[in-house]
Amino acid sequence: MLKTRRVWSAASVALIFSAPLLAQSSPTVRILLPERPRLLQGQLVDLVLEVRNAAAVSNLKVMAGATDLTSKFSAAVKADLDCDNSSDWVMRANLQSFDTAGDVKLEVSLTAGGATVSDSRTILVREFNPPSGQRRNVILFIGDAMGTAYRDAARLVSRAIVDSTGKNSFREGYFDNLLEMDKMPVSGICASIKTG
Questions:
Q1: What share of the chain is helix, strand, coil (3-state, %, to 5)?
Q2: pTM exceeding the 0.70 threshold for the entire prediction
Q3: For 18-51, how does the pLDDT look when each residue is reduced to its tens digit (9 = 90+)?
Q4: How far, in Å, are 59, 62, 74, 75 from residue 71 at the CA level?
């Protein structure tokens, strides 16, 4: 009985530690966009695709609603995305824009390492009609080193539920309001990625 228990324990431990390794071996594709992407009509954005664990990439197809964006993407460039010496690729379509307001579904499919993989994201494109006449002021809000994880943490701590005494009471893992910077009509994120 004790011997059987040890064998099952060893098998369980081996399965737990090998599961992430097995999961990493299958190819994946991911569209890199900020969380809840919101753009203005005509706003320029770089579209980036990351392909992980693929010996080769082919048959790329990128659609934004009914518009085919495949020809806008560069050829796949080899990259080390996870610092694990796996075969990874990056494809870019720089300075793209969406001219129709509303939700735009961005869909990508390709063949990676013999398997067909896909991903999709929805982008909210807001109508943009600048007022006529001379603009007097421009406000540029720069939050340096404020990635999505730091903004999520700030939301959780500073915008937690307010209790009956008027104080913020922290509810673990929840926020009940957005930060003021999240309510601004335009936002953007810039990432520095080493490719060589």
A1: 20, 30, 45
A2: no
A3: 544 544 578 999 998 877 788 888 888 889 999 9
A4: 12, 9, 8, 10
Kindly report, residue by residue over 131-154, the tens digit of the pLDDT: 777 777 777 767 777 777 887 777
Strand, coil or helix: 4 = helix
The pLDDT value recorded for residue 7 is: 52
CB within 8 A of 148, min separation 6: which ones?
A: 34, 35, 189
User: Which of 71, 74, 51 lies closest to 61 in space, CA to CA?
Assistant: 71
Number of H helices, E strands in the chain: 2, 9
In contact, 44 and 125? CB cutoff 8 Å:
no
CB atoms within 10 A of CB 76: 20
The beta strands (E) that lie in the chain are given as: 28-32, 38-40, 45-52, 57-64, 67-68, 77-79, 88-96, 102-112, 115-126
Bridge partners (DSSP) of residue 88 are 79
Strand partners, 39: 125
